[in-house]
Amino acid sequence: MKAVATSVNLLAPAHEHEFEAAPGLPEALPAGEVQLWQGRPDAVLLGRQALHLDALLVYFAMLLAWRGIGSVYDGASPGQALMAMAGMLPLITLALALLSTIAWLMARTTVYTITNKRVVMRVGVVLSITFNLPFAQIGSAGLRRRGRGGDIVLSLCGTDNIAYAHLWPHARPWRVRRTQPMLRGLVDAQVVAQTLARALQQAEAARQVLPLRAVGAVDTRRSAPTQLARPRAQAA
């Protein structure tokens, strides 16, 4: 597993990948390696899931209601109560606009790539870091459906680990000690999961000794992958 750090020019989208051998990849694919899928998070899904914009909207709505009810309780007229509530709107709008912009930047500067041998994650707004995750280091892959999209959670095997701060928001929440990389906010998560499942199974079939792999969906109640397919182990 290798991480490569580079800088991203946010103001020149036409030259966003000029430092890369190919979009989303730190170097050209070697002979025998084929790109199967490439994409990025949906900005709306990323904002709602990683930055909790839905919860913030509810919180701000409660603040507005509290301000209006408090004003009426203190003797203000309905018009005065509305004016008091309106006074809070600029700050609320600014906060939501800033978070929405951050979500858009994170989605725009993120590229997920699946080849027939690895998963590549290019993440980072100011400092771009590319994580290469060979299939041999992926212990399991799980699909977690969320609304109109979903996430693909990757559990790493072996002793290598990635710092949670380096991965966020592309990491499974609350898995800090043993981080789990996540392809987050994908609109076509089901299709991507099927592509990754086939690639993992084909990679395992090409090995002389096949460790077990679980490729499935994440049970939201138990937060554990449920197996969809498992290649048959072979003797050395």
Describe the fold and architecture.
- The protein is α+β, with helices and mostly antiparallel strands and 236 residues long.
- The chain has a five-stranded antiparallel sheet with strand order 1-5-4-3-2.
- A hairpin with a 3-residue loop joins strand 4 and strand 5.
- Helix 1 crosses helix 4, helix 2 runs antiparallel to helix 3 and helix 2 packs antiparallel against helix 4.
- The C terminus is likely disordered.
Nearest-integer average pLDDT: 80
Number of distinct helices: 6
Strand order, sheet with most strands: 1-5-4-3-2
Radius of gyration: 22 Å
The rough form would be described as: elongated
Major sheet summary line? 5 strands, antiparallel
- Fraction of residues in H or I helices: 25-40%
- In what range is the share of β-strand residues? 25-35%
Number of strand segments: 10
Order of helices and strands: EEHHHHEEEEEHEHEE
Structural class: alpha+beta
Question: Cα distance, first to last residue?
Answer: 25 Å
Poorly predicted sequence stretches spanning 5 or more consecutive residues: 4-17, 225-236
